[in-house]
Amino acid sequence: xxxxxxxxxxxxxxxxxxxxxxxxxxxxxxxxxxxxxxxxxxxxxxxxxxxxxxxxxxxxxxxxxxxxxxxxxxxxxxxxxxxxxxxxxxxxxxxxxxxxxxxxxxxxxxxxxxxxx
Length: 117
Known about the structure:
Blueprint: H1 2-7, H2 19-32, H3 39-47, H4 59-62, E1 69-73, E2 79-83, H5 86-104
Antiparallel strand pairs: 1-2
């Protein structure tokens, strides 16, 4: 699927040389493993320039399918922010989409009644 997204121009050209290939490799790995299962999620993962959120880590580290990143380290050496691994993000997106589809077919619950004392 990643090659299709690239050929259709759905993956924008990242600013740094080589990042497009790293991004495509990451997306292909996630598709091949069955982690990404829809064209919409594939396109999204191919469009977001993950390396731009990984300041100081470099594109190679940013596009590891199994690699969480900690782009901001405080003065004490402790991570003050992080970004989940792309594989975790893909599973989360898939689960949220499945949950949304499952709940959209149910009718809304009745509002709770609070007893008066």
